[in-house]
Design brief:
Elements (H helix, E strand, L loop, with lengths): L3 E6 L13 H14 L1 H5 L3 E6 L2 H14 L8 H26 L6 E3 L3 E3 L12 E7 L1 H10 L4 E6 L2 E6 L6 E2 L2 H9 L3 E3 L6 E6 L2 E4 L6 H11 L4 E6 L5 E2 L7 E2 L2 E3 H9 L8 H13 L4 E6 L3 H5 L5 E4 L2
Parallel strand pairs: 1-2, 1-12, 2-9, 3-9, 4-10, 12-16, 15-17
Antiparallel strand pairs: 4-8, 5-7, 6-7, 10-11, 13-14, 16-17
Helix pairs in contact: 1-4, 3-4, 7-9, 8-9
The protein binds adenosine-5'-diphosphate and magnesium ion.
The site of magnesium ion (MG) has 3 residues, from loops.
Length: 314
């Protein structure tokens, strides 16, 4: 039986800190990232790729704000779907080139993915995820009048940003379509930006003004596909305890119980390493073989066990 892999690409796989993040730059980093995954594409593994969309959704929101007087505003769920399409195209184009050059008989296809959340999620009443531009105090005051429904938070002294809810993903509505692509050897690109958050209102599905964490959505996808491994590709080679301190200790292999204890002890902050560890715990606890957290360059090596932090059952 071929292995099933869910590979979650972090921001660093597509954009780099300190760069403008132009489209050519994004294509270039995507090409580098996919080339590091080549040994996996060459294998007979069933592969789904998920990805974040932080910088891209930020830019889309700026376009929405700047264009407000000329074109209709886009709700946040539509912005997420646009980012899935644009980024899916980018990954598909790069994958086409790579597969042709390397004579790999695969194609890649993007599934616009809706992720079901609950309007009753505890996070819905407590928005905490910063999104879009940052504003000065004066700008924030004006926005409070123009957009009373926005929640703004002072992220750093004098720097304000809009915050939205980040509800827990419950169901991936296109799960069957994704599984069928995998059955035929197609690399499925899915759950971009954590998926488009939607909720049932009676018999209507409505878009939710929030964003789903891409690590948690990737974990749900991996569980639904009965994946063998969830590989979370980020900017560090491994997770660490006492991160950034002189006595920092990199982790090679930890059990779910150890991961749970470290998470509870505050070793992995919310919004960065925390959701990755949480995603790994959820995946392994429901039968996944292992969750690997590693950097792009070492992703393939990590699958053969020679790099990364491995979260294992026991
Ligand atoms: P991504 O876009 O891949 O989701 P994030 O920035 O959300 O990336 O998370 C990865 C970052 O988490 C790393 O760049 C690292 O600086 C930070 N980090 C925080 N705590 C830890 C930790 N305990 N071990 C390793 N990295 C950590
Ligand atoms: Mg992140």
């Amino acid at each position: 039986m071929p292995e099933t892999l869910v590979i979650a690409l972090g921001g660093n796989a597509i954009t780099r800190a300190g760069e403008i993040g132009t489209i050519p730059q994004q294509f270039e980093h995507t090409a580098e990232t996919l080339s590091h995954l080549l040994p996996l594409f060459r294998s007979d593994a069933r592969i789904a790729i998920t990805h974040g969309n932080g910088p891209q959704i930020g830019n889309i929101l700026i376009r929405v704000e700047e264009g407000e007087r000329r074109v209709p505003r886009l709700p946040l769920d539509t912005c997420v779907s646009d980012s899935q399409g644009g980024m899916g195209y980018m990954i598909q184009r790069i994958a086409c080139e790579l597969f042709r050059r390397e004579r790999i008989r695969r194609t890649a296809a993007t599934i616009i993915t809706q992720v079901l959340v609950s309007e009753a999620d505890p996070d819905m009443g407590h928005p905490s995820k910063p999104i879009g531009s940052s504003y000065t105090c004066a700008e924030a005051q004006r926005i409070r009048i123009d957009k009373p429904h926005w929640e703004l938070r002072e992220i750093e002294p004098g720097r304000w940003r809009r915050v939205v809810a980040s509800p827990h993903p419950l169901e991936i509505l296109e799960e069957d379509a994704i599984a069928r692509l995998l059955d035929t050897g197609i690399v499925a690109i899915a759950c971009g930006g954590g998926g488009i958050p939607v909720a049932w209102e009676g018999d209507r599905l409505v878009g939710v003004e929030g964003v789903v964490d891409k690590d948690l959505a990737s974990s749900l996808l991996a569980r639904n596909l009965h994946a063998d491994r969830l590989i979370i590709v980020t900017s560090v080679d491994r997770a660490a305890i006492r991160y950034g301190r002189p006595d920092q200790c990199w982790l090679d292999r930890i059990t779910v119980a150890q991961a749970t204890a470290f998470l509870a002890a505050g070793e992995f902050p919310a919004g960065s390493m925390g959701p990755k560890i949480e995603a790994g715990i959820e995946f392994v606890e429901s039968g996944g073989r292992e969750c690997i957290i590693t950097c792009t360059e070492r992703a393939a090596e990590a699958v053969w066990g020679q790099a990364g932090t491995h979260i294992v059952p026991s």
